[in-house]
Design a protein that fits this description.
Blueprint: E1 7-12, E2 17-23, H1 58-61, H2 75-86, H3 97-112, H4 114-130, H5 134-158, E3 161-162, H6 167-183, H7 198-217, H8 221-225, H9 230-233, H10 237-241, H11 244-255, H12 260-277, H13 281-303, H14 313-317, H15 320-327, H16 331-347, H17 356-367, H18 370-373, H19 377-387, H20 395-402
Parallel strand pairs: 1-3
Antiparallel strand pairs: 1-2
Helix pairs in contact: 2-4, 3-4, 3-6, 4-5, 4-6, 6-7, 12-13, 13-16, 15-16, 16-17, 16-19
């Protein structure tokens, strides 16, 4: 997403040594562009009423009990930690065993790991920033960037291998890192970051997720077997937060034709276009596999609207060659990325997934020439129909797609 610094994490299991793995968390030196907001957060932590929904009592839902955690935090950090465990945590609505296991590990790992603590504080600030208008959220944006920078810096300087003492913290931080890197793609953070196309930002998130998947595959079998069934770990959270929003999301998907039959039609259309426009046989196969995986990803979305992590199936499963073609701005690869953003726009509504899909789609539309712009008209129209897509399509695109 941004110029990155990498660490080489040499991974060890009890039986074999894994090769060096380059884990690039997508943070650079943003702290020089960020400043902590001074003063008490007590006066500014006012949650908008329309954002409040009933949540289960934390000790009942997650089983943390009553205990003092991180007693040496500054007052401002304590406010952020309080917000995370009383509000932000319950926006995640975990669905799978891995999601639930991450939530179960957050509390013990943040007490023993500086980088997990900073990730928690940063995500809490990101969530607060998402609740406010532009004039009121900059203080939380600054806080978020500061804590997330500190967290990634701590990870780089303290983690050089995987061992029994840090495996829980690495697992937790890796899961949280993909969330905050996606959240930072929101256009509101553009003013803090170096100039970079939204396309490249998303592709770097893709690469980060692929490395996280590789990292998790290197974990000992005993760790994976220790992940408990979700019903045992968090009781009541899913039922309490499987809100009417999920039902309305499915209705919206139905309204805009995102049912299996329409998805099949889109898939067939992309396959036909691939065969008609791609001359290299190897590339035809690369794109065909990406199209089929796109179909699978959003078939799952249709069955489980709001399950945001399903969106990660596509970037983790597609060929790396396809990602490289997107980097090179090859038209058909960009077309697939545009369809991914349009389908994603209808498939999930979590706060960290909002707005940036439109920015990526707009950048794609501005990159494609007249020969290709007509082929992305469905994706553009799907987003426009949903939200009006203010500024999403340029005047040139409007003329090209109307003809």
């Amino acid at each position: 997403m941004f110029p990155v610094k990498s660490i080489s994490t040499t991974l060890y299991t009890p039986t074999t040594a894994s090769p060096s793995l380059d884990i690039s968390f997508v943070f650079d030196h943003r702290s020089t562009q960020c400043s902590l907001t001074q003063g008490s957060l007590r006066q500014i932590v006012q949650i908008p009423q329309d954002c409040i929904s009933p949540v289960p009592q934390l000790s009942q839902a997650v089983g943390f009990g009553l205990q003092t955690i991180c007693p040496n935090l500054a007052y401002q950090e304590t406010e952020l930690l309080h917000h995370f465990f009383t509000f932000a945590l319950f926006t995640f609505v975990p669905r799978g065993d891995i999601d639930y296991h991450i939530i179960q590990l957050i509390l013990p790992t943040l007490q023993s790991s500086e980088f997990v603590l900073r990730a928690v504080l940063g995500i809490s600030a990101l969530h607060l920033a998402s609740l406010y208008s532009e004039t009121n959220c900059s203080r939380y944006q600054n806080l978020a960037l500061e804590h997330l920078y500190q967290g990634t810096s701590s990870f780089r300087t303290t983690v050089d291998r995987l061992d029994p003492q840090n495996i829980d913290a690495i697992f937790t931080f890796s899961g949280m890192s993909i969330l905050f890197e996606i959240a930072l793609m929101h256009p509101a953070y553009k003013i803090y970051l170096r100039e970079q196309s939204p396309i490249d930002q998303l592709l770097q998130v893709f690469i980060l997720w692929r490395k996280i998947v590789t990292l998790r595959q290197s974990f000992p079998q005993s760790f994976r077997q220790a992940i408990l069934p979700k019903q045992v770990i968090v009781q009541g959270m899913t039922d309490a937060h499987r809100s009417k929003m999920m039902e309305s999301k499915l209705a919206q998907m139905q309204h805009f034709g995102l049912l299996s039959s329409e998805l099949d039609s889109i898939t067939q259309r992309l396959h036909s276009l691939n065969r008609a426009t791609t001359t290299d046989s190897a590339e035809v196969q690369i794109y065909a596999e990406a199209i089929d995986l796109l179909h699978l990803t959003f078939s799952n979305f249709i069955k489980s609207p709001g399950h945001w992590s399903l969106a990660l199936l596509w970037p983790s499963g597609m060929s790396m060659s396809c990602v490289e073609h997107m980097r090179e701005r090859r038209p058909f690869a960009l077309l697939l990325l545009g369809y991914y953003c349009a389908l994603l726009h209808h498939g999930t509504n979590q706060w960290w997934m909002r707005e940036w899909d439109r920015s990526v789609l707009s950048a794609i539309s501005q990159t494609l020439d007249g020969q290709w712009i007509k082929h992305i008209s469905w994706a553009v129209q799907a987003v426009q129909d949903a939200v009006g897509c203010h500024g999403c399509v340029t005047d040139r695109e409007s003329r090209d797609t109307s003809g």
